Amino acid sequence: MNLRDRQRADTRQRIQRQALRLFTDRGYDATTVNDVADAAGVSAMTVYRNFPTKEDLVLYDDFDQLTATTLTELPATGSLTDRIGRTVLTILDLAATNEHDLLLARLRLMISTPALQARHLDSQFRLQEAFVSAICADDPTLEYGARAAASAVLGVTHTALLRWAADDGEPDLADLFQEAFSATFGHSA
Prior knowledge:
It contains ten helices and no strands. By secondary structure, it is an all-alpha fold. Helix 2 packs across helix 3 and helix 5 (63-73) runs parallel beside helix 8. The longest helix has 24 residues, at 3-26.
């Protein structure tokens, strides 16, 4: 990553962190994009350049790209469900370790804000597509199975994330995922 890309990423992160802080303190609906821009020390245009909608201030992450990269780097062994499960487990562990508070704040807002609940389904679909694209890159005949497996594992993931958020991010997220995965598929990821 060159200097310009790092600066852009730092700006995006600063804007998102300020937005999450304001949404948590004041409420999502009571906070404007101009409020976020002022708190982040940027213009509203800079906010919109990085986050095209207000919902994106909460929902944006790099998980789609990270998912595809992680899936291709992990051993391609086991069923599609197992491969996707191992990928999700790796990403959840990384997110809960490195972005614990950010992830928890985002989840709480997604759970409690109706406008974000609807948009969350869009982000789930994009994540499913990232799995399908990565799996089908070498074998397009796996598309239907990959779509079904990704959808099932993302349902398990959603269950674990909801429990983690309800328990204030205290339990180990990877353990909650494994518990939900085992309950659904009869074995761990």
